[in-house]
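ATP-dependent dethiobiotin synthetase BioD structure dump, as promised
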Amino acid sequence: MPDLPPVIVVTGTGTEIGKTVVTAALAASLLHRGLRVTVVKATQTGLQPGEPGDVDEVAALAGDVRARELVRLPDPLAPDAAARVAGVEIPTVAEHADSVMHLIRDGSADVVLVEGAGGLLVRMDSDGATIADLGTALEARGARVGFLVVATAGLGTLNHSALTAEALRHRGLDCLGFVIGSWPEDPDLAMRCNLDDLPAVTGAPLLGWVPEGAGRWEPERFRAEAPAWLRVE
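structure tokens r here:
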């Protein structure tokens, strides 16, 4: 049996820090290498049916990816809270893992990217399971899983990043490294220091950064420049 394609779970140290644009940059980089990419959003919150979601943004920026959104909830909350407010049952993390494994095994991707919701320990289902638990469930099903963590650039990011790295180590999950989700043209002193300090406090490499505002670029420019932003093997 051929090896299954690797899974990269894109999570963050919080919400609204650039996970979707980083996912798009990673997808564009992989496509640039000639790899086939599937992008999965397990749970999309804060959007009505028919509105473009995170996977749509990834596809628009990165290009020819296969995009899959598994669940959508209208309120901008953590998935379990959004489901309670909407009065609906959502799949368990184990069921999400089965859905992702189906996409992994169908032979149409060389790499599967899974974008989380919020941070690593945001509750994904009514049992309290998290995106970290999704990684564990995928590994239990035979997948090769690594976590890429998106962090903010400025003051305060070291603590949040160290906590996320520690949580991954505690669960025996592979942290591929950190990416700064929005890097300004004129970084301040704290931001410049964080380039050296992030690897020191997390024990994981800094894999790169995405320029501030890149998500608003024309797709042609985004695809041309994205491969230079990240160093993911």
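The beta strands are 7-12, 37-45, 66-73, 111-115, 145-151, 174-183, 206-211.
lmk if u need the other ones
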